[in-house]
Amino acid sequence: MTTTTPETARRDPRGAEPLLSVRDLTVTFKRQGEDPFVAVDGLSFDVRPGQTVGLVGESGCGKSVTSLAIMGLLPDRGNTVTGSVELDGRDLLTLSNKQMRDLRGSDIGMIFQDPLSSLNPVVPIGRQVTEVLERHKGMSRKSAKPVAREMLHKVGIPDPDRRLTEYPHQLSGGMRQRALIAMALACEPRMLIADEPTTALDVTIQAQILALLRELVEEMDTALIMITHDLGVVAGLCDEVNVLYGGRLVERGDRHPLFHDPHHPYTGGLLSSVPSLEGDAAERLNPVPGSVADNLPWTSSCAFAPRCSNAIERCREETPAAVASGDRVLRCFNPLGGQASPAESEEDRR
Amino acid sequence: MLRFIVRRLLQLVLVIFALSVLLFAWLKSLPGGTVSAMLGERATPESREALTKELGLDQPIPVQYWSFLKRAVQGDFGVSNGVQPGTPALDLLLERFPATIELSISALLVAVLLALPLGYLAARRRGGILDNVAIVGSLVGVAVPVFFLAFLLKYWFAIELGWMPVSGRQEVGNATRVTGFFVLDGLLTREWDASLDALKHLVLPAIALASIPFAMIFRITRASVLDVLDEDFVRTARSKGLTSRVIRGRHIMRNALLPVITAIGLQTGLLLGGAILTETVFNFPGIGNALSEGFTKRDYPVLQVIILAAAGVYVLVNLVVDILYAVVDPRVRTR
């Protein structure tokens, strides 16, 4: 392990060619008797080799749907995905099922929110690790076993020989998530997607798992997309943060500038709703008022306006465009200190 | 695991004992009684009394039960007095039971081999043509009485088309008997024609008998696969890029099978009820046939031994199911 601390980015990946390039990703779900629901709306972002990128937002902002779309794991029917998701210049959205199967688990790994339900209850842990190696590395079950053992050791599971033969219900929550990480990283993928990997765990275990993830992606030089609603997770892990609201990007920036100087009122709201140890204990948390149910349609307004403390009249009448200045991207008419965005033009809207 | 099996076997003894008490009390309370059955309605009071004494029927019922139990433990269940007069009831059971077991296993194979793949496919293509056809088919399977289906099959395929034999178990007369399972016997002694002939006799009764178990197992497989398809671990399996064959077998079916195994066990126990009707229609010489004949002829020793044997098999099957359950589901093992 290198000597980087959580407070410093592990390296400056800027300038490198992106490993994953998501452009105008739009995922629409058909609904019986209702208008189609746009879960992800024109989302674009890059992930460079070895970089850790956060997708942040509350439930329903489209962050999980984005990860499933990248992995090609959305249901076969009932949705349409447009835009492009390029991995090394290959558009994943145009690949066949077979090509995607070859890619999943070997080039892109994924770990999920609830480690217990995400593990097969009737198959030993070891088998669930070796099956990935058998599939992608062409190993036999026997030759994959020592590799699986090594992998369990690597993710900090004590007594891996015994754990190989055990079943998920015999492991603790933290051990289960470690086992899932072992499966996802067994083939040393170049990219890992972690969808709320610590939400179902105890707070002390959360910190351990995050530290483990950071250590592993550094060691293996794996790019990481961290999907979370928890800015605490982002603070310790991500180089770059994308804040999503209602399926659209509202703010993007490097971790430090974004945390110290949030421009979008939603980012500001998320930050002030995180409890702080340094703050006065009597100080009340400031949650973002309302819920996503209050959203306005993006097509004719800012979806966040009804919940926004900074909303002005224009926010309910026009759609703010996402505008880049330097490394920062912002979509807001009346930001907390940055430069206001213009309205979205016809061309932006497409 | 071993302790579990031993405990269940002890339970088996208890169940059989309790059932023998119930059965004995029930048979004794039936109108008519053994004596009328053996001598007919018009026997003289003297001969009735003599036979009553001879059979020990003048003794108090607990005493009668005790002597029944003593003899039964030694394998003496009395002599048939209706189905095959003069034959010991146990011999009759041993001769007939293999036929029913052979038929039941065939029916179960038909049901399971059809229901599992169809249930899986129907769930994967939920709402599709196959799904709807199979659902209607399974409804029909449950709704049509077994004896009616048996008659239809017999009429079309045996009588009209002549594809299959009309009745019985085997026509090859000089087949060697080894186990009492005719298909197996033919294979063991290399008498292929005898084996094939016995198999042909099994086809129609087995299909008739399979209709209800098929419908139940299909329905439960379909529902169970639908449940498992939504599970997070199936998504995990897909995220690992596994082939559909591995996802289907190791991740979906192995989990979906748990409730299906229970259903198969229950249906196996219920097969005997269907076997009575099927065997009667096809004049198939199994215990179902003997049971219905035993009732009409008030052959109490035969009824007793068959019902006890059937109950024993039912408990044994459920023991096997429980063991299978523990084999498939590690969570049961550690409990």
UniProtKB/TrEMBL annotation, chain A:
Topology relative to the membrane: Peripheral membrane protein
GO biological process, one term: peptide transport
Subcellular localization, as worded in the UniProt entry: Cell membrane
GO molecular function, a single term: ATP hydrolysis activity
Chief place of localization: membrane
GO terms for cellular component: plasma membrane
ABC transporter domain: residues covered: 22-271
Key words of the record: ATP-binding, Cell membrane, Membrane, Nucleotide-binding, Transport
InterPro entries on file: AAA+_ATPase, ABC_Ni/Peptide_Import, ABC_transporter-like_ATP-bd, ABC_transporter-like_CS, Oligopep_ABC_C, P-loop_NTPase
Family: Belongs to the ABC transporter superfamily.
Protein name (record): Peptide/nickel transport system ATP-binding protein
Protein source organism: Marihabitans asiaticum
TrEMBL record, chain B:
One annotated GO biological process: transmembrane transport
Record's keyword annotation contains Transport: yes
Membrane association type: Multi-pass membrane protein
Keyword list, A-Z: Cell membrane, Membrane, Transmembrane, Transmembrane helix, Transport
Domain ABC transmembrane type-1: 97-325
Pfam (any one): BPD_transp_1
GO cellular component: plasma membrane
Source domain of life: Bacteria
SUPFAM superfamilies in the record: MetI-like
PROSITE patterns: ABC_TM1
Compartments, record wording: Cell membrane
Bilayer-crossing regions: 9-27, 103-123, 135-157, 198-218, 256-282, 302-328
PANTHER family, per the entry: DIPEPTIDE TRANSPORT SYSTEM PERMEASE PROTEIN DPPB-RELATED (PTHR43163)
Family: Belongs to the binding-protein-dependent transport system permease family.
Name of the protein: Peptide/nickel transport system permease protein
